[in-house]
Write a structure and sequence with these properties.
Layout (H helix, E strand, L loop, with lengths): L9 E6 L10 H18 L3 E6 L6 H10 L3 H18 L15 H13 L3 E4 L2 E4 L15 H7 L14 E6 L14 E3 L1 H13 L3 E7 L3 H15 L6 E7 L2 E3 L14 H4 L5 H9 L7 E3 L3 H16 L6 H6 L4 H8 L4 H17 L3 H18 L6 H6 L8 H16 L3 H13 L2 E6 L2 E6 L2
Parallel strand pairs: 1-2, 1-7, 7-8, 9-10
Antiparallel strand pairs: 3-4, 4-5, 5-6, 11-12
The structure holds adenosine monophosphate and zinc ion.
Length: 446
C-alpha cells in the first residue's frame, strides 16, 4: 500500500510515549527507536511534525509516589529526564513536540464535553464514560466484535457503567490525588483521552501516522480512535496505524516477577548506545524480537565490521555531507521500514569498500557508509575512537559478555573442551566468572 499523506509534502505522526514512573526497559525502547528511524526517513521527503507524548498523570505514577514518599512532580521530572537521556543515548532524536498530559487537561475536558453533546458519552457518579454502544464502528481497528466481547466478558461491571465495555474519560479524584476542576467535579482524565486531545492539539483532527507498540491496539488505540472520530463528527482520525512487535527475553515475556527486565539505563553503563540501537533495528519492526545473550555481542560485531571498513579513510567534510545512502538501502527502508534488509545493504557496501583498491572509489564508498550510518542513527563516532574503546590487553564488557555466552553455549552443547578454552581466555585477561542461579556473573580480578 503506497503511503499518501493528507497534505502534499507534509506528514504528521503521533507516537504513544512512556508513562513516566520508572526507567524505560529495552522493550519500551523499541517503539522509540524504530519510529525514530521512520521519522528520519520521512524527513528526507516531507516536512514532518512528529509528536511523542509523555503520560505524566496515571494511577501507576500515583502508586509510585505513595510507595516512595516522593511527590508526583519529583517522580515524573526524574523519569522524563531519564527517558530523554536514555533514548538520546540510543540515537533517538527529540520529537518536534513532546506534549505532557498534565498540560492539556482543558483540551481533554473540551473533547469530553463534545462527546457528551453528541450523545457518545454520559456522566455517572462523578465519572464520565464513553458509550461504546453509540459507535457502530467500535472494534474495527483491533478486529474485535463487540457482541462477542460482551458475551465473553467476565469483568465485574462498575455500577455506574451502562455497559461493561464503556470506558472512562474522566474519573473523580480524592484530595490526596492529582485533580483538576471540571464540569463533573474535581477529577482526572482517563489514559485514552489524553492521547486523543494531545494529537488533535498538535497535529490536527486527522493525523497521517499513528504509531505505538502492538499491545496498545486494544484497548488504547481502539478507544482513542472511537473518541476522536465521535468528537469530530466522524472525521478520520489516523490514515495509517503502525504497530511494533513485542520484544521478549529468551522467548519469555519480560516481567518483574520473572526478573528478566533489562533497563536501558543499566545497559548503557557498559554497552555503547549504538550497539543497543543496532540490535533493536536488526529485526523488522512488525515482527517479534527475541533478545538473548547473543544479541548484544552480535550487534557489537556488526559495528566492528562497519567501523572496520571506514577505518583509516579520510574524507573531506563537503564530500561527506554530499554523500547519500545507496539506493538499495533506501528502497529497503521505504518498503515498510525493512531495517534488516537495509542492514544487509549496509554490509554489502562495507564489503565493497573492503575489496576496492581504488582511492577515489574508497572515498565515495566510505562517504556513502557514513551517510547510511547517519540515516540509521548508528556509526556516528570516529572509527579510531570506536576501536580505542577496546583497550589493548583488556577485554571490554561486551567482549567479556560475548566470551561468557560462547562458553555457556559450548557447555550447553556438552563441548567442555571449547567451554574451558573460553574460560581460560577470560581468566588470562584477569576476568573471574561465577555461575549462579541467575546465570553467570563476572568481575575483574586485581
Ligand atoms: P508504557 O510506558 O508501558 O506505556 O510503554 C511504552 C511503549 O513501550 C508502548 O508503545 C508499548 O507498546 C511499548 N512496549 C512495552 N513493552 C514492550 C515490549 N516488551 N516490546 C515492545 N514494545 C513494548
Ligand atoms: Zn496513546
Amino acid at each position: 500500500m503506497p503511503f499518501v499523506p493528507q497534505k502534499e509534502g507534509e506528514v504528521t505522526m503521533y507516537l504513544c510515549g512512556p508513562t513516566v514512573y520508572n526507567y524505560a526497559h529495552i522493550g519500551n525502547a523499541r517503539p522509540a527507536v524504530v519510529f525514530d528511524l521512520l521519522a528520519r526517513l520521512l524527513r528526507r521527503h516531507y516536512k514532518l511534525t512528529f509528536a511523542r507524548n509523555l503520560t505524566d498523570v496515571d494511577d501507576k505514577i500515583n502508586a509510585a509516589a505513595m510507595v516512595t514518599g516522593k511527590s508526583i512532580d519529583e517522580i515524573t521530572a526524574r523519569y522524563i529526564k531519564a527517558y530523554n537521556d536514555d533514548m538520546g543515548a540510543l540515537g533517538v532524536q527529540p520529537p518536534d513536540v513532546e506534549p505532557r498530559a498534565t498540560q492539556h487537561v482543558p483540551e481533554m475536558i473540551a473533547m469530553i464535553e463534545a462527546l457528551i453533546t453528541r450523545g457518545h458519552a454520559y456522566e455517572a457518579e462523578g465519572h464520565v464514560l464513553f458509550d461504546v454502544g453509540s459507535h457502530a464502528a467500535y472494534g474495527a481497528l483491533s478486529k474485535r466484535d463487540l457482541r462477542e466481547m460482551i458475551a465473553g466478558a467476565r469483568v465485574e461491571v462498575a455500577p455506574y457503567k451502562k455497559a461493561a465495555h464503556d470506558f472512562v474519560l474522566w474519573k473523580p479524584s480524592t484530595p490526596e490525588l492529582p485533580g483538576w476542576d471540571s464540569p463533573w467535579g474535581r477529577g482526572r482524565p482517563g489514559w485514552h483521552i489524553e492521547c486523543s486531545a494531545m494529537a488533535k492539539k498538535h497535529l490536527g483532527v486527522t493525523i497521517d501516522i499513528h504509531a505505538g507498540g502492538r499491545d496498545l491496539i486494544f484497548p488504547h488505540h481502539e478507544n482513542e480512535l472511537a473518541q476522536s472520530c465521535c468528537a469530530h463528527d466522524g472525521a478520520e482520525f489516523a490514515r495509517y496505524w503502525l504497530h511494533n512487535g513485542f520484544l521478549s527475553m529468551d522467548s519469555e515475556k519480560m516481567s518483574k516477577s520473572l526478573g528478566n527486565v533489562l533497563l536501558v539505563h543499566d545497559m548503557l553503563k557498559t554497552i555503547p548506545g549504538e550497539v543497543i540501537r543496532l540490535a533493536l533495528l536488526s529485526a523488522h519492526y512488525k515482527q517479534p524480537l527475541d533478545w538473548s545473550d547473543e544479541t548484544i555481542p552480535s550487534a557489537k560485531r556488526m559495528l566492528d565490521r562497519l567501523y572496520g571498513a571506514v577505518r583509516g579513510i579520510e574524507i573531506g567534510a563537503a564530500a561527506r555531507a554530499a554523500a547519500e545512502p545507496p539506493a538499495a538501502l533506501l528502497a529497503a527502508l521505504e518498503d515498510d521500514l525493512n531495517s534488516p534488509q537495509a542492514l544487509k545493504e549496509f554490509f554489502a557496501l562495507a564489503k565493497q569498500l573492503n575489496k576496492t583498491t581504488d582511492e577515489a572509489e574508497k572515498q565515495s564508498l566510505a562517504a556513502a557508509m557514513y551517510a547510511s550510518g547517519e540515516l540509521l542513527g548508528v556509526m556516528q563516532s570516529d572509527a579510531e575512537e570506536w576501536f580505542a574503546g577496546d583497550v589493548e590487553g583488556e577485554l571490554s564488557a561486551v567482549d567479556i559478555e560475548e566470551l561468557i555466552s560462547l562458553r555457556n553455549a559450548a557447555r550447553a552443547a556438552r563441548d567442555f573442551k571449547a567451554a574451558d578454552k573460553f574460560r581460560d581466555q577470560l581468566s588470562d585477561a584477569g576476568i573471574q566468572i561465577e555461575d549462579g542461579a541467575d546465570g553467570t556473573t563476572w568481575k575483574r580480578s586485581g
